[in-house]
Amino acid sequence: MIRSLPTLTASVVCAVTLLTGGPAAAQKTVPQAPPSATSLTLDEAVARATGDSEEVQLARSQVSLADAQVTAARSQALPQISGTLGYTRTFESSFGGDGGFSFPDSLRFSPDSTAALPDRVRYLETNGPNAAFEALGGLFSDLPFGQEHVYQGTITASQLLYAGGRVGSALDIARRYRSAARLQLAEESAEIEFQVRQAYYQALLARELASGAAEALAQADDFLAEERLRLEAGTASDLDVLRAEVSRDNLRPQLVQADNAADLALLNLKRLVDLPLTAPVELATPLAPPTAGEAARGRIDAGELSQTRAAVAAAREQVEIRNSAVGVARSSFLPEVRASMSYGRQLLPSGIFEFDGSWRTDWTAGVTVSVPIFNGGQRFADLQVAQAELDQARIQLAQLEEVVQLEYEQALAERERALEAIAARETTVEAAQRVHDLTVLQYEQGQATQLEVSQARLELLDARTNLAQAIADFHVADAELDRALVAAGETR
């Protein structure tokens, strides 16, 4: 299709402008500087995670829920007071439209005062008994039955006097549940702290390994450059240069792998501390060997650990909760005594907005005793269930005490192993560094081969890697030891 002239002209102008560097080309987009990296220390990472993590927030919500349950359980022992205010409009009633009793004509008493005296005497003799019914109807004519308009207000109060200990047991359950929730909050905080410390040191280790791989590759590049210079000087062969290139190229995949591992470890740390995954982060805490104070740590016995661990204390609270639940189940066999009182006022006006009548008072009080007799064996079943759950809670407590002691022993043993490994590998790194330096010197003097130089470089890289791994293992084991020693009532 042939373009129209204005369109073609505009296209040519745009192309010429771009090619000649006109105004459009002059207005180049200035590249923005990358955002500065966030410096993050280990303590800052722990503080962010334990303060904002969803797991900790969930544990805190359980504490708030437990507080509400304590209030609800306590309310059962307090008076229950309620008030009602209502209006009733009666359109039709079986008691009659005027609110009194309606009698048939044969029972009515209405003598005629204008009749002759003999007729009046005869009427009185015949209908005299009906006068009593007429008076009775007038007596009950103002009762509330069938009244057209009724206003009524009532205040009712009840107080539980005795329930076989059910209320006290329920209150004890709620309080212990609140205590267990707070202990669980300490456990969740400690678990989050351990995960953050572990991820932080894993990120430091991955960064250290990536740095070591980059340094080894840089050394291989320098060595290759020296071989090429020696080739130009006639002191090396093409085979020596080719070997140096192969040795250098073999290090590139290791560097890529180390960089990927470092990126993944940092992403995991960002996830735990709730940082954007794309935000640059600089780890400010170094991967350093432990100081003498960090390395020295006392040992505690199993009894002390069992008494201080928050998880064990929470399990003990669960045992007491199940014990109180047995008390609640037993209370269902006992009677319940409750006192109640009701005070009401009633008005029967002639119209909906005509408050011309007098208020009537209705004030009653009573005591109710409820005695359980038979419910098909449900109470016995509830008691058996409560007793079985109590036995399970006791067994779980014993198992947890063993698990906690095992976690502590494993963390302590791993910490001691890492300390010994650090001491041994620091010596190994020093020896590997000396071997590498001497091998390079001998190679420069023609007394060592290129293969020996590559082997010395690889051994030095392995020694540094092993040392960094041992240091990271120590710090992770130390964090796990802190996790095993989290004290009851400690929130982080």
Automatic annotation (TrEMBL):
Subcellular location: Cell outer membrane
Record key words, sorted: Cell outer membrane, Coiled coil, Membrane, Signal, Transmembrane, Transmembrane beta strand, Transport
Gene3D superfamilies: Outer membrane efflux proteins (OEP)
Coiled coil ranges: 383-410
InterPro entries for this protein: OMP_efflux (IPR003423), TolC-like (IPR051906)
Keyword Coiled coil: yes
Presence of the UniProt keyword Transport in the record: yes
Signal sequence extent: 1-26
One Pfam family named in its UniProt record: OEP
Family: Belongs to the outer membrane factor (OMF) (TC 1.B.17) family.
Protein's UniProt name: TolC family protein
Organism per entry: Gaopeijia maritima
The organism's taxonomic lineage, starting at the top: Bacteria, Pseudomonadati, Gemmatimonadota, Longimicrobiia, Gaopeijiales
